[in-house]
Amino acid sequence: MMDFGSINPAVLIASLMVAAVPIMLAALGELVVEKAGVLNLGVEGMMIVGAIAGFITAVSTGSPVLGFVGGAAAGAALSLIFAFLTQFLLTNQVATGLALTLFGLGLSSLTGQGYNGIKPPHTGAVPFGPLADIPFFGRVLFSHDWVVYFSIFMVALIWWVLKSTRLGLIIRAVGENHDAAHSLGYKVNRIRLGCITFGGAMAGMGGAYISLVRVPQWVDGITSGAGWIALAIVVFASWRPWRVLIGAYLFGGITVLQLNLQAAGSAIPVEYLSMAPYLITILVLVIMSSGRGKASLSAPASLGQNFHASS
Amino acid sequence: MLRLEKRPNPSQFWQYGTPVVAVLLTMVVGGILFAMLGKDPFAVIKTIFWDPLFGEFAFYLRGQLLVKAGPLILIAIGLALGFRAGIWNIGAEGQYIMGAVIGASVGLAAYPTESRLIFPAMVIAGAFGGWLWAMIPAILKTRFNTNEILVSLMLVYVAETILAKAATGFLRNPDGAGFPGSRNFSSYKAASNPELIAGSGLHWGGVAALVTAVLVYILLQRHILGFQIKLAGQAPRAARFHGVNPTRLVVFCMGVSGALAGMAGLFEVTGPAGQISIDFNSGYGFTAIIVAFLGRLNPIGIVFAGLLMALTYVGGEMAATNLGLPSAAIQVFQGMLLFFLLGVDVLGNYRIRLVKGA
Amino acid sequence: MTRDILLDVAGISKSYPGVKANEDVSFKIGVGEVHALLGENGAGKSTLVKMIYGLVKPDEGRMSLRGKAFAPSAPSVAREMGVAMVFQHFSLFEALNVAENVALGMENPPPMRELAARIRAVSEEYGLPLDPSRMVGDLSAGERQRVEIIRCLLQDPKLLIMDEPTSVLTPQEVEILFKTLRQLSAEGTAILYISHKLEEIRTLCDAATILRRGKVVGSADPRQSTARELAEMMVGATLTPPERKATAKGDVMLGVTEVSVASPIPFGTSLKDVSFTVARGEVLGIAGVAGNGQDELLLALSGELKTAPDKVRINGRAAGDFGPAERRRAGLVAAPEDRYGHAAAPDMSLVENAFLTGAIRRNLSRNGFIDWPATRAFADEVIATYDVRTPGNHVAARALSGGNLQKFLIGRELDQTPEVIVINQPTWGVDAAAAAAIRQAILNRAAEGAGVVVISQDLDELLEIADMFAVLNEGRLSKPRPVKGLTIDEIGLMMGGAHGMEVAHHAEA
Asked: Is the pLDDT of residue C257 over 80?
């Protein structure tokens, strides 16, 4: 039997909340992008560029907060390439997204030279005073850095914006039927441009969290598929923000459990444990998509199609 | 202000013109990048694009071109079939690894028997390995409508862990003093994939790539299956109206691209790489995506694109050793090439017009 | 009666590459006037109203609204100035509810709860019942149009533009719509009514401007003109109705028994127990408002949707489980409604598109290899026989105008010596001359012994060419009846009447 006894549940929950932050931020950004009808497969590329840009900014300014801003800015900048190509030159979104990932991987590795082995400035926990000492809940709820709370706040914010504001309604309308939105006078390409940039910033910030908090250092290929898992989580969540939170915590949990089992010297070989997040992603995708096309029904109807005002 | 206007007919000129323009633009912007890295851009561009062909060491480097181009072409042709049909297999890297691992396993199981049948059996096993790995996303897509992009990509990471396990575990050289890595195939004649003509760089993988290019070209131009692939990609509803069975098409395209990637992996591991090692795969499965688009998803175009991409690899290594250019710069260069290609491609279907006013 | 001028359009021109969509167009609309804009498909009506609505900018000319210069740079500007538009292809979002759809068309929508109340109020006032919380994807075509109309009415428009509003309505629904429009007109709202249906215009409109090839060719008082006079102004030629040779009824060529299939289209309509037969030489016309299962019926007949083997019999053979290719081999050809993407691959050449369905019956491949010379010959034959205007067989299908492409696509099917022909919307968006040619070609094939099913939303067309008549309503097919002796009221009732709308206006009247 495996030994789960050595794993403290409060620590486990607390650390899965941390582990979930990068994919949660990236998935939330991509959710908004896809709600607007755009499929950006470049999440992995934007994350890793955000990871190195955030790392460099934090190291050179000494401020981790500026690091996150830098990561978000870099992710947004990279996403602008995608936005320009797909929205104005009408390139294929799948191919352009792949190009963004390939380019981002190379760019991060190029700019990251000389940053190996450096430790970034520490992002500390938000001081909650005595609250942090409450048994169990103190550790689970009041022991985190600000980005953990920010990511949860963003879930609520995006949920509220999409559901109850005019901006959210317009974004959904553009993703649902861009021709109709155009004929009502909405600037489809500009709205999409804004969403893509937002998605890029979120992915970049998620990437920065990996290099500044999760790991924390710079290594080539540091995101190792987190961007792709974020894309899968959007499908898992059926394009609903609160389900992104559930999905991200689920995957965070698997990652943390898998690492804990490795550390605890489990009988399962290390290789199989490290495969687990990817295999479970596939499993979840299958379950979500097989429910009589349910996932595809909640997908925005114009997802992945380019818009060109021909008349 | 500039406006795009759809052409009634796709432009024939830009069909062939775009790759050339994209390469030139990449050279210009790449040159600026190299200058920003503190290198003389002209020297770098010359080292990458000229020296491997006509420079001092061209006699050796030209051979290296075919070594690198072979797997790129083989994989890209398979991918192009799928891309044309709107089937996005982007996990060729995983299929490439699995082809190598399964193919190598067959060879290593036969060690030290010498037989002419061993290498062909390994090639078949390699193709089978890649095919098998591609069938997972194919069947999940046709059965459960699961997104093949994400599944095939996730399987790359799984394949990489299997490769690590193979190199350090079940395929490790029992006489290797515990070092990771399998037996070296160059010292096992029946299972090795040597250079066929000394100095040419041509091994069985290159031969397979060229034969495949011709066969797939004929398939696309003349055969009804090629017509159906193009139709399914351009107008999926028209394809169903024509009578295309989408399931069969997905299984065919994924299967062919997986098998070709698996074969490429086997040729690589028995030839240039020499052994199963933890990092014998060098990202060919991803670079092949660029090659497929650069070659306009056309088998003959892909042959040229593969050679060009090989040039950037070989020249890039030269620039790394001679000029100290970081090897990641080449990766950025290749990524940029794909951006420019996709961007310039718009000229094929749209006209750019200057219009007055806002 | 003289009215104050509301909108004055003077000398408007607009060109697209290769076409002059509008040339020196002028006309005036009075306050509260119902003004018809009459013209064939492609006459330039849509471009003209898009300019009035601010979607397209004119190259030349000017407009004024209540005497003030009017040059809307965007639909929002036009809306602000009191111009509203109901589109022919609805600008609606299926996955959003009615209230959200209405809100998207307004500049400053009130909070959702208040908006829902106002939607209820306006819909009752004008006899257009509508539930604000329903998902638009679940509504019928007539109900969707009500969403568009209410969206416009909530903004108190001075000018309401309606683009072919009745093409999706049953005759009874048309009556109700006209009542609403007259009520609006009486309240002082002008209506610009775009149509090519002459009888409608004669009953509804106060004035008419007739467009042909982008130019104004005349104006008329529709109540004083006959339909024939209007038609000849619109078409610019005298039209001859199609001829048909009487043929005796033969064997059953197509037998459909209790076909029920789920729709593969999101928000589509499933077919429920559809049964009919078509005999040799017979034309069965299937009418119905769009979205009542027409697309699904075509898919079920073409083989894109399969059923149990003996539910569909082609020339006596059980063919329900056949795919499209096998059904063609068995003698059935089909022409779907959507030309760009379903019947044809828009980016492929006419030759490749000829191969798309012609491969089997015209033997265009050998051992899986395509015989390109034979395919080119087939494409050329269709181009010549059906008078398809094209620079050659190599051009992409999308380069052809709608009518020309339709001639090619119908010709492609008819030239395969078919035994059963199924066509959805044979002349939709096609000019009158081409439409007449297409109808004649269909009748000729029937006379040669094919069984024909024509699905159409154009009642006049069906009454002109069909022997038997049936209606699709919510996925169910009525029992086919001989066309002779049918009245328009009976047809209306077969089409589902007014879909429960009678209540509203009756209560008010």
From this structure: yes
CATH code assigned at C342: 3.40.50.300
Supply angle C-alpha B4, B10, B13, rounded to 5. Answer: 100
Mean pLDDT of chain A: 89
Indicate whether C240 belongs to any domain: no
DSSP string, B44-96: HHHHHHTHHHHSTTHHHHHHHHHHHHHHHHHHHHHHHHHHHTT-----HHHHH
Q: For residues C109 and C165, state if they share a domain.
A: yes
Q: Is C399 part of the contact surface with chain B (CB cutoff 8 Å)? A: yes
Which pLDDT belongs to residue B358? 37
Q: Which of C200, C235, C270 is the last residue of a domain?
A: C235
How far apart CA B127 and CA B98 sit, in angstroms, is 9
In terms of Cβ atoms closer than 10 Å to its own Cβ (0-12, 13-18, 19+), residue C236 is middle
In this predicted structure, the answer to whether residue A277 has a pLDDT above a threshold of 80 is yes
For residues C223 and C260, membership in a common domain is answered with no
Measured between beta carbons, the chain B residues lying within 8 angstroms of C302 are 241
The predicted structure's pLDDT at residue A256: 87
Task: Indicate whether C151 belongs to any domain.
Answer: yes
Cis peptide before B112 (omega within 30 of 0): yes
Question: What residue segments make up the domains of chain B, in order of their start?
Answer: 64-325
Q: Measured between CB atoms, does A309 come within 8 Å of chain B?
A: no
Give mean pLDDT, residues A211-238. 91
Question: Are the Cβ atoms of A176 and C109 closer than 8 angstroms?
Answer: no
Q: What does the block give as tokens for B173? A: 């050289």
- CA nearest B219 in C: which residue? C369
Residue C369 covered by a domain: yes
- CA–CA separation, C434 and C140 (whole Å): 31
pLDDT category of residue C248 using cuts at 50, 70 and 90? low
- Name chain B contacts of A226, Cβ cutoff 8 Å: none
How high is the mean pLDDT of chain C? 87
Give the range of the structural domain holding residue C165, as residue numbers without chain letter: 5-235
| Residue C206 scores a pLDDT above 80 | yes
Residues C86 and C220 in one domain: yes
Q: Looking only at Cα atoms, what is the longest distance across chain B?
A: 78
C92 neighbourhood in chain A, CB within 8 Å: 177, 180
Q: For the whole model, what pTM was predicted?
A: 0.87
A–B: how many Cβ contacts below 8 A?
A: 130
A239 residue type, one letter: W
Chain A residues in contact with B3 (beta carbon < 8 A): none
Q: Which is higher by pLDDT, A294 or C294?
A: C294
Q: How many structural domains does chain C have? A: 2
Question: Rounded mean pLDDT of B297-303?
Answer: 94
Side chain identity at C201, as an amino acid letter?
I
> pLDDT at position C87, please?
81
Min Cα distance B336 → chain C (Å) is: 28
For residues A50 and B177, which has the higher predicted lDDT (pLDDT)?
A50
Together in a domain, C266 and C304: yes
Domains and CATH numbers, chain A: 9-298 (1.10.3470)
C270 and C413: one domain? yes
Residue C509 lies in a domain: no
Q: How many helices (H) and strands (E) does chain C have?
A: 17, 23
> pLDDT > 90: what percent of chain B?
51
Same domain, C34 and C158: yes
Residue of B nearest to A290 (CA): B144
Q: What is the pLDDT of residue B104?
A: 92
- Backbone φ and ψ for C266, nearest 5 degrees, come out as -60, 135
Cα angle B255, B260, B266; round to 5: 125
> For residue B160, with 0-12 CB atoms within 10 Å meaning exposed, 13-18 middle and 19 or more buried, which class applies?
buried
Q: What ipTM score was computed for the predicted complex, to two decimals? A: 0.86
**What fold, for B64-325?**
ABC transporter involved in vitamin B12 uptake, BtuC (1.10.3470)
Do both C135 and C260 map to the same domain? no
Q: Which helix (H) or strand (E) holds B3?
A: strand B2-6
